[in-house]
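Customer escalation, tier 2.

The customer says the design service returned an amino acid string that "doesn't look like it belongs to this structure." They asked us to rerun it and document both sides in this ticket. The original structure tokens are below, unchanged.
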């Protein structure tokens, strides 16, 4: 896994391949044509707002640091909704010195990715894109844990943004 500060070249190619793979899976598994599906940006509520400690009523990607120096659940036992395929290919923050150092993504009970986020706050736009996006299929469980710095105070509010795309049956969220 390599991190990039811009969505071009290798990470853009990886994202585009991921989008095509989500469409391929959705058409095969749902029996729908591509025209019956829609591609849209990932929203906080796509990652199970009831189980996520970061989702606020206003749709912001905020959460409160509850522990440091250990893996702590951020999204706990979320099952991706029926007729929906989720891809995460980047992370961002609005923090100049983010507390979160790493994110661990577990898909269907197996650790699928561990991304180091220490440099995110140093980027001009505070975003990083990965060359190994993760796709989570409909009805598949996902857990996300964070590792926070010891120098931050517990109960600090943190802004952490998951950058991704969703392919879903047209009409579930958007019906143009």
């Amino acid at each position: 896994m390599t991190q990039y500060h811009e969505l071009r070249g290798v990470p853009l190619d990886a994202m585009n391949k991921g989008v095509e793979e989500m469409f391929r899976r959705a058409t095969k598994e749902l029996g729908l044509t591509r025209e019956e599906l829609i591609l849209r940006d990932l929203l906080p509520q796509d990652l199970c707002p009831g189980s996520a400690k970061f989702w606020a009523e206003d749709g912001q990607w905020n959460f409160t640091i509850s522990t440091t120096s250990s893996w702590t659940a951020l999204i706990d036992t979320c099952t991706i909704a029926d007729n929906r395929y989720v891809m995460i290919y980047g992370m961002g923050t609005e923090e100049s010195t983010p507390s979160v150092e790493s994110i661990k993504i577990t898909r269907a009970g197996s650790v699928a990715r561990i991304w180091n986020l220490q440099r995110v706050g140093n980027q001009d736009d505070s975003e990083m894109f990965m060359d190994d996006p993760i796709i989570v299929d409909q009805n598949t469980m996902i857990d996300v844990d964070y590792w926070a710095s010891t120098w931050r105070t517990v109960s600090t509010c943190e802004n952490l943004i998951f950058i991704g795309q969703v392919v879903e049956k047209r009409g579930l969220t958007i019906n143009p």
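Tier 2 assessment: The sequence is consistent with the input. The first helix runs from residue 10 to 30. Residues 3-169 form a domain with the Jelly Rolls fold (CATH 2.60.120). Sent an explanation to the customer and offered a walkthrough call.
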